[in-house]
Write a structure and sequence with these properties.
The chain is of the alpha/beta class. Helix content is 35%, strand content 10%. The chain has helices spanning 28-31, 51-54, 72-84, 106-112, 115-118, 130-147, 159-177, 196-203, 221-227, 250-259, 280-283, 292-295, 351-387, 408-414, 418-427, 455-470, 490-495, and strands at 151-153, 186-190, 207-211, 232-237, 263-268, 287-290, 310-312, 324-328, 331-335, 403-406, 434-435, 444-447. The protein is globular. It binds pyridoxal-5'-phosphate (PLP). Residues 98-99, 158-160, 194, 196, 238, 267, 269-270, 291, 306, 308 line the site of pyridoxal-5'-phosphate.
């Protein structure tokens, strides 16, 4: 490609070749040329049909749809050019706090690609898919052990879907045990919670009541006790919370909520900090969801379908979505629990994501999972110490797998905001951390180095952040410079989304 400019160097390391240039990549429609094909089928001796013989003419389009026509070679080159302009987990550090984006071992991909797993029809009967059922039972058992719970449903396809499932289980439980007491209408959520939590509470038919954080960045116990009454169905917590801090009073919180008959829900989307160290079940939680696409080697975001299994105590197992894989008399079967809330996903969930996660759990092992937690927490705390004096640290005490620093000081002195720091990081070859979240911190930069980054990479990330603070200037609002795409207008992209392309080139 002509006109290449020097781009950032992934992961702070010297890249062997600069990223490709800044010029816009044409769309497939612009690259289209009539008659080009990426594939052609050999003619067969099957009878050929005219469209109008199969579909009533009034349902036929009068003109062919304007699909792009490209050769395979041009199509592959187009997509390869696009991927080379994209920052990804496979390219370098991706410290996106509250959304664990860690390197996923290729072993997990290889497992999910095995023909014996990938080529099985989801409707194949249990008698023909004993291996698949064994895998699912094995994963469920591992996740129950990791979380300290009794039973697991692997069906929910994402974290938010797991949350809704958990809330429907909470509803089913209260409906069953409720008797003639007050109607439970409220679910408590700390003010630092992930945005999906209140959304799930609303979808689950409850009202969100916010619990304030105290000066430690933890649940304010006094405020919590004042909010607890017999209309509270339960509380949803993330621990470590979204400030990356461990809720020190967790046992007391669980006890207080149980005393008024409520249930305690654990948002385990990011389990990196506690794997093999402590368990939600031991902290007093009743319902847990996990994001296998954050902690358990399933690619995250655009990388493909996720999985948000839900684990519960023995008392709640009868409400789980079904059918569940079970082993009885030496054979695996599908069985739906007695008071199941019903299905929450087609078939048995995103099963190849589940296969990836099981490969990861088996390959890592119990000791290995504990080392994951230790390294994740060590990396985050090392970074927090290194950034002290360069950024404000609003809750400066040992953190778990992520640390939250603030660019409020840079804003006062240079007009530089957290988002400008994030964009400048791209110039240094790092993906941005999470910015402006959690909302309780002004100009928040929420950084999760993860356990998969080496000390050298974490040190390079810290150095990049320090250099950015040291050279901050109002010019930073134009960052990133030298990247294939410069600053985009994010508000406009969200509010005036154009997701269509006019083939006549009108945009
Ligand atoms: C990512 C995340 C979720 C939502 O998970 P999705 O799979 O994106 O629906 C919920 N809670 C927390 C704390 C998260 O980090």
């Amino acid at each position: 490609m002509s006109g290449a400019v020097d781009g950032p160097q992934p992961g702070g390391r010297a890249a062997s070749a600069p990223l490709l240039g800044r010029q816009a990549e044409p769309t497939v429609f612009e690259l289209s040329s009539p008659g080009r094909r990426a594939w052609s089928f050999r003619s067969s001796d099957l009878p050929s049909w005219q469209a109008h013989e199969l579909v009533p003419p009034e349902h036929l389009a009068s003109e062919p749809v304007a699909l792009p026509e490209l050769s395979e070679r041009d199509l592959v080159a187009h997509h390869t050019r696009l991927t080379s302009r994209q920052y990804s987990v496979d390219l370098g550090a991706y410290p996106l706090g509250s959304c664990t984006m860690k390197y996923n071992p290729k072993l997990a991909d290889a497992t999910a690609g095995l023909a014996g797993l990938a080529r099985v029809h989801p409707a194949a009967p249990a008698a023909l898919t004993q291996g698949w059922l064994e895998l699912l039972v094995g994963l469920g058992t591992s996740l129950a052990e990791i979380t300290g719970m009794s039973a697991v449903s692997l069906q929910p396809p994402a974290g938010a879907a797991g949350e809704l499932t958990g809330l429907l289980i909470m509803r089913a439980h209260h409906a069953h045990v409720g008797g003639s007491g007050a109607v439970r209408t409220k679910v408590l959520i700390p003010d630092s919670a992930h945005g999906t939590n209140p959304a799930s509470v609303t979808l689950g038919g409850y009202r969100t009541v916010t619990v304030p954080s105290d000066h430690r960045g933890c649940v304010d116990m006094g405020a919590l006790r004042r909010l607890l009454d017999d209309e509270v169905a339960g509380i949803m917590l993330t621990n470590p919370n979204t400030l990356g801090l461990f809720e020190e009073d967790i046992a007391e919180i669980a006890q207080a909520v149980h005393e008024i008959g409520g249930l305690v829900y654990y948002d385990g989307a990011n389990l990196n900090a506690i794997l093999g160290v402590t368990r939600p079940g031991d902290m007093g939680f009743d319902i847990v969801h996990l994001n296998l696409h954050k902690t358990f080697a399933v690619p995250h975001g655009g990388g493909g379908p996720g999985a948000g299994p839900v684990a519960v105590t023995e008392a709640l197992a009868e409400y789980l979505p079904g059918p569940l894989p079970v082993l009885s008399h030496g054979r695996y079967h599908w069985q739906t629990p007695s008071r199941s809330i019903g299905r929450v996903h087609g078939w048995h969930g995103n099963t190849l994501a589940l296969a990836r996660a099981y490969a990861y759990v088996l390959a890592t092992g119990g000791d290995g999972l504990r080392r994951v937690a230790e390294a994740a927490v060590l990396n985050a705390n090392w970074l927090r110490q290194r950034l002290r004096g360069h950024y404000e640290i609003p809750y400066d005490r040992p953190c778990m797998h992520e640390c939250v620093v603030s660019a409020a000081g840079l804003r006062r002195t240079h007009g530089v905001r957290a988002t400008d720091v994030a964009k400048r990081l791209l110039e240094h070859g790092f993906h941005a951390p999470t910015v402006s979240f959690p909302l309780v911190v002004d100009e928040a930069l929420m950084i999760e180095p993860t356990e998969t980054e080496s000390p050298q990479t974490v040190a390079a990330l810290a150095q990049a952040l320090i250099d950015i603070a040291a050279t901050a200037s109002p010019e930073d609002r134009h960052a990133p410079r030298g990247t294939p795409v410069a600053r985009v207008d994010e508000a406009r992209a969200a509010r005036r989304l154009t997701a269509t392309f006019d083939a006549r080139g009108q945009g």
